[in-house]
Amino acid sequence: MNVLKQRVVNLRKQSGLNFDQDVFVSVLLCLIAGTSEHLILICPRHHTAKVTHMATEICRLIFGFSVSRVTCHESQSVPTFVDGLSTAIDADAGTDGGPSSSSHGRMDSKDTLTPARHAATGSSSSGASMSRSAYPISPVDFTVQRKSSGRHHRVHHHRAQDERKKRHYASMPLSGGKAYRLEQALVISQFEAANELVQAALMELVVTNEIRMPNARYQAPKPFLTIVVLPENEYQHIIPSPLLDQFFISYRCTDASLAAAGAHESMDPSTSAMPRRAAHFSSHEIDALERQAKSIYVHIDVTRYIRDIIVGLRTHPRVTGGLTARTSEDLVRVTKLMAAIFQRTFLTPELVAVAVEKVVGHRLRIKTEGRKQEIDTHDVIADIIGEILQVAIAPV
């Protein structure tokens, strides 16, 4: 724990960003999972903008990711939503504009302000003028094939080694049209207001790591992370359980934790605003933690303890559902990842207890007894988890 705290202190100084340690750990857990895993951040509604900004800056400044920031609304169409997630790649950018070996990718974050480009072919340059810097600096770009004026424009693949996965895909259209790519980190706010079609589009993306449009196919880069910021007590009966179940973990930001993180938010504004290409938390460190997590020893008694917790939660009289087989698997994985972060070589009941709320907090469906606006759903979930942890027999 002391090693982690010292590392966070150093990262805050290096980046000039005073972030919430638990938000950083939540992002790190998703990145060292070895697959594309995703995160939900829950906070009071009046803090959604602050949490969205913090998540964006952690991805951009600490991990060196290219970031797309999208705000949803009820009348938003799927093409508009997807427009906000992707960036145009200049045809003449080439592969020589790639990153140095220590870079994760392009650092610019963006908002979804571009017009829908999927509705018609042969779009004008106005959409391109609103696009952000499009050089394929990311070590893992990907290819999109688009139809324009009744023709297919093929995209060339150029491969080079990258530091982490030994693969580098750059998109270069031969003639006409534009290639687009998803950013490495997607930060989505006000998703509780999104309509069912947009929810389905995000479901497709997090399940298949790609999203298909009538005239385009977007593949997720590697690494890839989606962070959805949700207001507490306002999403449980709006976002379907199958979609929530696809998110690896969640973390609830409280007023107290956000006040502490904001105390020195402008510690070094010039450093915080400066675009960077080198990650402060390198991919070597992520790879090392990923390897360490795979070697964590899991005693059979801890496995039974985890099973008893899940069974207890499923059968609790106030729980109506939400826990699938994926939940049990994720709880084991998250506990092993936390053991790696905290420099442990085996799982302990204490780590399991910390991991439970991260894994089940956004998944549990509870009985509201007709009082949706009168109860704090997350406090009820925390109470239910506490009850089960008290009765479950922890191994010695």
Q: What is the topological layout?
A:
Blueprint: H1 2-15, H2 21-31, E1 39-43, H3 48-62, E2 67-71, H4 78-85, E3 86-89, H5 125-129, E4 146-148, E5 151-153, E6 155-158, E7 170-173, E8 179-182, E9 185-189, H6 196-208, E10 210-213, E11 216-219, E12 225-231, H7 241-245, E13 249-252, H8 255-262, H9 269-273, H10 283-294, H11 300-314, E14 319-321, H12 325-341, H13 349-360, E15 365-366, H14 377-391
Parallel strand pairs: 1-12, 1-13, 2-9, 9-12
Antiparallel strand pairs: 3-8, 4-5, 6-7, 10-11, 14-15
Task: Give a description of the structure.
The protein is 39% helix and 15% strand. It is of the alpha/beta class and 396 residues long. The strands form six sheets. It has a five-stranded parallel beta sheet, with helices on both faces. A two-stranded antiparallel sheet has the order 3-8. Strands 4-5 form a two-stranded antiparallel ribbon. Strand 10 (210-213) and strand 11 (216-219) form a beta hairpin. The protein is globular and about 60 Å long. It starts with a helix and ends in a 5-residue tail after the last helix.
Quick rundown:
The protein is an alpha/beta fold and 396 residues long.
Give, in spatial order, the strands making up the sheet with the most strands: 2-9-12-1-13
For the CA atoms, what is the radius of gyration? 21 Å
Low-confidence stretches: 91-109, 111-176, 263-276
Tally of DSSP helical segments: 14
The dominant shape is: globular
Helix content: 25-40%
